[in-house]
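Try this one yourself first.
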């Protein structure tokens, strides 16, 4: 019997640009990231930001760094698909925010920036899409002068075995935090903080969270914004000013983010590393 191919974000990213319906889970992730950004901005006085690579998660690609631009930082976005980069640039323009958009050949890990060009280099759930992970990390190390912020899927989550992560497109070693540190500490970076985050009340499964909550009888948790009559939930409406209350609505689900570490380790969807130039 022929093996059925798993449909992953690499195969369906265009859909999110056609209809900006990211769903509750992705929107929640984005707002949780803003809390980390705020802390990093204050700690390191971040003025210049590189997100590379930008592709990795579900939802509209390449918009996680919009928070930085909204705070006045100079942002550069790197993507390894020219068509996706054009779509990313378009949604940034529609949101009224500016960034530099840089195409990177898929076969290379080299970044076209001078040494120390950015206060912060970061990415979210993107490293396992990179073929030469060690070279890519060395490039991030080279172009960042203050801090690195790296986020990877949490393999210790109880639902990890249910997620589609065995596809040939994924480089699983690249999301091992020990491996990441083994690449960066010899290059003069010191680990300042690590932990688990993105700890919503729903499990980390490859399903739209609105559908999952309804399936288990918890659809009462859904707010009106995520109802069937909604045109779709997307953080682009927050940045464009169409839904200024969105953060307040979404963060009602964030009551587990300050849970004990043992719970976050088993329920958190992602893990983070904050590194500082030694």
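Now uncover the answer:
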């Amino acid at each position: 019997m022929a093996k059925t191919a798993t449909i992953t974000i690499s195969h369906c990213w265009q859909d999110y640009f056609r209809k900006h319906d990211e769903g509750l889970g992705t929107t929640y992730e984005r707002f949780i990231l803003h809390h980390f950004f705020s802390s990093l901005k204050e700690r390191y006085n971040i003025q210049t930001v590189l997100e590379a690579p930008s592709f990795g998660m579900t939802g509209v690609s390449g918009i996680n760094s919009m928070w930085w631009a909204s705070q006045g930082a100079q942002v550069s976005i790197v993507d390894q698909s020219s068509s996706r980069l054009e779509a990313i640039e378009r949604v940034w323009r529609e949101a009224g925010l500016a960034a530099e958009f840089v195409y990177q050949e898929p076969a290379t890990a080299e970044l076209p920036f001078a040494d120390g060009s950015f206060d912060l280099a970061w990415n979210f759930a993107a490293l396992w899409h990179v073929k030469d992970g060690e070279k890519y990390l060395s490039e991030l190390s080279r172009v960042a002068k203050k801090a690195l912020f790296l986020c990877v899927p949490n393999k210790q989550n109880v639902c990890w075995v249910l997620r589609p992560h065995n596809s040939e497109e994924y480089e699983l070693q690249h999301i091992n935090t020990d491996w990441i540190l083994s690449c960066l500490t010899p290059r003069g970076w010191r680990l300042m903080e690590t932990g688990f985050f993105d700890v919503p009340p729903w499990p980390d499964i490859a399903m739209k969270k609105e559908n999952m909550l309804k399936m288990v009888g918890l659809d009462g948790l859904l707010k009106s914004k995520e109802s069937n009559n909604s045109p779709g939930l997307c953080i682009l409406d927050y940045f464009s000013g169409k839904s200024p209350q969105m953060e307040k609505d979404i963060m009602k689900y964030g009551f587990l983010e300050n849970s004990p570490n043992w719970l976050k380790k088993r329920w958190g969807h992602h893990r983070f590393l904050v590194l500082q130039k030694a």
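Discussion: The CA atoms of residues 48 and 87 lie 23 Å apart. The first helix runs from residue 9 to 18.
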